[in-house]
Amino acid sequence: MRTRSFLLAAALIQSPPLSAQNAAAPDWTRIADQVVTRTLALAAGERVVIHHDATKDAGLVSALRAAIARAGGVVAGELVWPVGATAAVYDTMSPATLTTRVAREDSVYLRLMKSANVYLWLHAPSHRDLPRRVEKLISASGVRAIHFHWTLPSDPAEAATAAAMYERAIAVSPAELDRQEAAMERSLKGARVRLTSPGGTDLSFTIPASAWFHRNTGLATRAKVARARTTRDREEELPAGVLRTTDLQGAEGVLVATTIQGTKSGTVRVTFRAGRVTGIEGEGAAGTWLAGLYAGASGDKDKAAELVVGFNPELLPILPSGFMPYYGYGAGIVRIAIGDNWESGGRNRAGDHWEQWLFVVDGTLTANTTVLVRDGKLVQ
After folding, report:
1. Helices (H), the chain
2. pLDDT in tens, 76-85
3. Each residue of 276-331: pLDDT tens digit?
4. How far is Cα of residue 226 from the mean position of the Cα atoms in its chain?
5. Three-class secondary structure of residue 350 per DSSP
6. What CATH number was assigned to the domain covering residues 2-170?
7. Where in the chain are the domains?
8. Which DSSP category does 148 fall into?
């Protein structure tokens, strides 16, 4: 129930009414061409599986089919998440029945994915899975994958703004994102890192010189995925634009942050000692929500899990409603995760793969004496 509660909370943010999802009319043909020819560099004969929500992805799926055909690829299969009447059937299942159903589906999905080269993961409804279901299929099948994010706020005016922003963000040059992310990676390796903010954050930790980083740049080519060490390295997220590592050692201090619920839901104050959470306090809905989830979690819930820094210049960090487009991939947002970090190659294991993302939207990030982010803005 803890996981389903988390998924439901995320869905309230991710899945506005269909009218909001359709508030803008993106150039799906251009976006699909970028995905197929630039992100994937799809070769003739490569096999692609598309997994989507039929109520939200029709325009994109149609454009992707055409782009794949133009590149000489083959759509090896299309999987559709349960929605409408089918979703209602899933909602009536007991936890045990749902677990059995998911296992049967995944057995079929895995055989299909193993026969393919590429997996395109589009929208998924909140009752789609058990924890880390899709990522485990990606890992087990060996495909290279794209996780396409088109999460919109519920307000139609903001939804139109966000959709136009995502379209611009997907077009950002992978080479430029890689250049900036690589420079920060070099600065962070072997450094004592400090994150501060006007709200009271003062958190320090060490990143070893041997740390593994994932650069989300908008490329999921065969050459890039051939260097994969983690499941995360096989799965490129679009719009792209984050640098991440799980190698945070000895976290000490206080993190005052926003949760996934957005900046209007209050903040949480998380205290770390020797790399572990020793206290969680908060104000507003965010504090109550996180404290409740934390109390019900198990395993390595109290360990620092991941540092994530946003780079995409086309993603506004915050919209007026407090909505954070694409979970803080906007340039200058710093995200600290606690709990499980399996997907990104870390060693933390929490029950139900429990993790939480904590965002600092106005922080200053320093590596030794080098300022990398100042007041929520990347330092070039």
Report:
1. 2-14, 18-21, 28-33, 58-70, 84-91, 95-114, 133-141, 156-170, 174-188, 222-225, 231-234, 284-296
2. 999 998 888 9
3. 999 999 877 888 889 899 999 999 999 999 999 999 999 887 788 878 777 778 89
4. 21
5. strand
6. 3.40.50
7. 2-170, 174-378
8. E
